[in-house]
Structure to design on (97 residues):
């Protein structure tokens, strides 16, 4: 799926920029409620657990950096304990890479 591949690539770059190791247990999945976007990432939760930090802190950093990534994720949201939700524009799903 193009969206997951793109988001994973962006997340790997952002995690490296933050000087953190890539979390092997990172997961991308559809949120339980579609109002939260198309994809939810647990990246910050896994990063925070290994560093003994509040997951919302790295989630905010990652969500902010996603908005300036290439291609940018126009809107991001941090939900619950630190999930990062990302909606994608409709044309993102129509055009293959």
């Amino acid at each position: 799926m193009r969206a997951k591949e793109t988001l994973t690539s962006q997340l790997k770059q952002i995690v490296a920029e933050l000087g953190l190791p890539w979390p092997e247990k990172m997961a991308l999945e559809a949120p339980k409620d579609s109002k939260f976007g198309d994809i939810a990432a647990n990246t910050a939760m896994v990063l925070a657990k290994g560093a003994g930090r509040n997951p919302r802190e790295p989630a905010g950093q990652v969500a902010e950096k996603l908005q300036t990534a290439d291609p940018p994720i126009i809107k991001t949201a941090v939900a619950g304990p630190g999930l990062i939700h990302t909606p994608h524009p409709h044309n993102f799903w129509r055009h293959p890479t």
